[in-house]
Amino acid sequence: MGKNFKASSAGDVRAKKHLGQHFLKDENIAAKIADTLNLQQYSKVLEIGPGMGVLTKYLLEKPVEVHVIEIDSESVEYLENNYLHLRGRIHEKDFLRYDLTEVFGEEAFAITGNFPYNISSQIVFKMLEMREQIPEFSGMFQKEVAKRICEKEGSKTYGILSVLVQAFYEAEYLFTVPPSVFNPPPKVDSGVLRLTRKENFHLECDEKLFFRIVKTSFNQRRKTLRNSLKSLNLPDNLREDAIFGSRPEQLGFQQFIELTKMIEPYAVSDK
What we know:
The protein has 271 residues and is of the alpha/beta class. The protein is built from 11 helices and 9 strands.
């Protein structure tokens, strides 16, 4: 562990509320998160929001090229001064706005991190947009969000993220992390998950329409699909099919794929 970084003589970075920072201080949990990566189909890893590098130092022990992306300039300065092996691979950028092809080109890479609660769902949506390059994704979320991503149909917490992620990835909820291991401690438990891209992750339907149908369905999740999908102006005879009598949380991702295939001939393209 010691070979990849030097001890700091500077003080700790101050956690900033507006960035949703809660710095992990438990070394064992950091090591466990680093071990969630299976290190297959890629040779590069991107850590989002490394802070003071408690997870980073364990990633640096892995046989992969580690990059980190951090929006907080104070954290970037700390990393540059203390993690010398990361020189040239510390990207002071906003992950949600940064074009990652500037770093990775078209190469495959994994993503991991202790994700800020306030942007964790947006991180997942961006990951889905780049799924061609991301065979594996792991990290720490608010427990409720991590559970939701891994939830199966029939649950009240099953939703848009559940369907979209599980259409392309195998989702595993791995373990729960208490607030006490963070500085400052959050008000809720955290949860660590792993997403492993499916061997065949291309859908047998129009993927853009699939996303649109899933999002439109769950925007009115208490209604049946017959009502929630009214905006698609589907013909009455199609809307009489039994599947339109279901609520969105009753359908697994495969059923949403079948639903999309049914709707495709009638949908107005938004490409």
